Every structure is written in C-alpha cells, then in structure tokens.
Amino acid sequence: MLPIHLDGLSKTYGERPDAAPTVSVDITVRAGEFFTLLGPSGCGKSTLLRMIAGFVSPTDGAIRFGDKDVTRMPAHKRGIGMVFQNYALFPHLSVADNVAYGLKLRRIAGADRRRRVDKALERVGLDGYGERRIDQLSGGQQQRVALARAIVIEPEVLLLDEPLSNLDAKLREETRMQIREVQKAAATTAIYVTHDQAEAMAMSDRIAVLADGRAHQVDTPRRIYNEPATAFVARFIGRSNVVPGVVREVAGATATVRVGDADLIVRRQADAVVGTGQQVEVSLRPEVLRVVGEAEAALHGVVASKEFLGAIAMLEVEIAGATVAVSTPDVDVETGARIGLVVDPRAGWLIPESTIEAA
C-alpha cells in the first residue's frame, strides 16, 4: 500500500498565459485509504483522476506514489488498476479472458494467470462465471468484471471513475459496499470519483469536496457533514440551511450568533478568527430544527410548503426573509400556518469560510 501525494498539481487548458487552471490541488491520500473526489460536473475531478492515471499530463506540480515521482511516467508503468465509467470490457472475450487481459500484457504464465483470475472473480462474487460472454451478464455483473480486471494485476493504486453511474439506484447501493470490501481485501490505495454525495459519504475514509477546480475541504465524511469548511460544502453535502447572522459573543469552541430574532449558540472551528459584531454564516441541518409552540420557540416563521415523506415531513419555512428546510416527524400543519422552531443546542456550525471566493 502506498500514499499518493499530489503536490501543487494543476492542469490548464488553452494557450493564454493568464488562463485559470481547470484544477489545482495539494492533497495527500494515505496508504490503504479509500479516498473520494466529490463535486459537481465540471469541477475537475475526472481531470485530476486522469492525471493520476497518466492519461493527462499536468501543467504544473508533481504526482508521487510513495517516494516515487510518477509525474512523467507512462500510464502502463505506474502500477495502477482502473475501473472506467463504461467498464471498457471486450465483448468478444469471455469473462475470464477479460479479467486476464492485463496479466497477459505482463506475460504472467498460464497456471499463475488462471489462479489469479479465479481468485479475482471469487473476490467480486463471480466465481463460476469465467466462461460466460459479456453480453450474458447484467449491468451489475459487468461492473464486477471490470473491478476484477482492475484488481487481478494486484495494483498498488486503484482508480475508479464513476463506476456505478450506469446502474439503477438499488443496484448502486448493493454494489458500493462490495467495492469497498474488495478494496480492503486487495489492500490497495483507492481513489474514487463521483458526483453522488450518498456514495461518497457511505464508502469513503476521507473525501475531497471540489468546486471550480479547487478542494474546498478534505476530511472525513462525518466532519464534512457536521463541520463544513465553506458555504458551498454545507449546501452540496446533504441538505443544509446556510443562514446569515451576526456574532454576539465568542467563548472557546462556541459562539453566540444572532439569527433572525434569536440568539443561537453554535459550534465553531477553534482557530477561526471570529469577532463580536462580525457578519457570518451558520449551517443548520434540517434535522436540528424542531417544530414547537410559538410561546417556547426561538425562531418564528410561516410554512411555505410541506412534503410528506412517510416517517418524516419536509417543511420549507419562511423566516425573516429566508427559507429554511425543516425535517420533522409528520406534524399537523398546513401551508401558510405560522409555526415556532427551536434549534438543538450547539447543533449549528459557524462556517469558517462563508463564500466560494474565500475558500
């Protein structure tokens, strides 16, 4: 297992000297980690993965696998396994021959090749499928063949470019944990690209949230959800209310912020510079807001919409000119009703960087 260092890595397209880079990052992926590049379309995550793979040459910076600089090394010499979005399987070859393709290129002998192919197919739950044709397999099975082909060469680095995007929702959920289990069993460092927040949160040890070619936050799923570094991260990961406020008091790891007509005690990053009277933004997840009687409420608003989702209802509530989402057990309120809300103590988070420009 190897760590992967992306040292000031950037890619700029175009001839203009003042052209902004498509992507520019400084990230270290730890040895054996399942690391995800997450972001919207056009944020640079696939470009970044292709630079790591050796398919795209960086404009600046370096890529190191452990202590080895692979920045200018050809893709086939980097020791990577790759799973593509469209699987890139050979329809005229059997399952076993597809999996064995990389071993043949490496001139692995017949007996050892068959043993490794059988082991890879067993690892992805396809033992006994070796003689089948690719067109005899479901989409999920084809995805597992592609995964087996990537791990059979025993790569030190496994790269996965949105490998679940062609599967239906139920199959995606079933397959994502299998990919994680295979990566652990193969004892390899993995970098996974997706725009799907649920995939990233469920599978990853750590996530880099990208936007406009930059990493807004690199952290664990739990910290990214509960302690977003920027307003973009707060809005992009799950659903969050990013509301403006004014700092009334700072005390250690908390701050009192005036939001609307209420003073909320919120958590904050300990080393963030925050002063009394400063205008800030606070992240409030929908589940930390509770509907109560107006007399006991900290916040007051009017229900703009209500969506029944079974165990819960999702309300959109207008508060002091802003609309906030509230996730609550189904309550007997209708659109247009005035309601009160309280915030779970210290459930809010003071966003250290309030805008994308400041990230």
Question: Would you spell out the secondary-structure blueprint of this structure?
Answer:
Elements: E1 4-11, E2 23-29, E3 34-38, H1 45-53, E4 60-65, E5 68-69, E6 80-83, H2 95-105, H3 110-123, H4 139-151, E7 157-161, H5 169-186, E8 189-194, H6 197-203, E9 206-211, E10 214-219, H7 221-226, H8 231-236, E11 241-251, E12 254-259, E13 262-267, E14 279-284, E15 289-292, E16 299-308, E17 312-319, E18 322-329, E19 338-343, E20 349-350
Parallel strand pairs: 3-8, 3-9, 6-7, 7-8
Antiparallel strand pairs: 1-2, 1-4, 4-5, 9-10, 11-12, 11-14, 12-13, 14-20, 15-19, 16-17, 16-19, 17-18
Main sheet summary: 6 strands, mixed
- Structural class call reads alpha+beta
Query: What would the average pLDDT be, to the nearest integer?
Result: 89
* Side-by-side strand order of the widest sheet: 6-7-8-3-9-10
Query: What would you report as the Rg, rounded to the nearest angstrom?
Result: 24 Å
Q: How far apart are the first and last residues' alpha carbons, in Å?
A: 32 Å
Helix and strand element order: EEEHEEEHHHEHEHEEHHEEEEEEEEEE
How many DSSP helices? 8
Overall helicity: 10-25%
Shape field: globular
Total strands: 20
Estimate what percentage of residues fall within beta strands.
25-35%
